[in-house]
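Hello forum,

I keep getting stuck at the same step: I have a sequence, I want structure tokens, and every attempt I make locally crashes halfway through. Rather than fight my setup again tonight, could one of you with a working pipeline run this one for me? It's a single chain of 125 residues.
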Amino acid sequence: MENQPAGTVPTPPAPAAKTVTPEQAAFIGRGSFGAFSLGLIYFLASGLMIDALLSLVPIVNLYIWIRGIIRGRKMSWEKGNWSDFAAFEKRQKLLDKVGIVVLIISFAFGFIMGLVSALAVNSTL
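Reply #2:
Ran it on my machine without issues. Output:
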């Protein structure tokens, strides 16, 4: 920084690369069940704002959804808004659990509505 020409802004040193253990790398590389069932909510909670916006665009959202399922964790980790791996892992596990609960509730609701409609049809016959 001492040999920079006058009037130039000094550039800060590049941040150190995030180092992860093989177990952490395996967790980051896994698919995300939260992205499967939560979509837009997953992208917002993972700090992937561009993907969240693109998930609102018809046709493009299918690509973004599939990419989120396959690479969502990796994209979120690389974005770098995490204080440490523990915070990242905690958020991803929470999103996966919420995604499973939402999926179970959706299937249960669909099953119950199917039963109700079948009973309504049978009672009118």
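The radius of gyration is 22 Å. If your local run keeps crashing, start a new thread with the error log.
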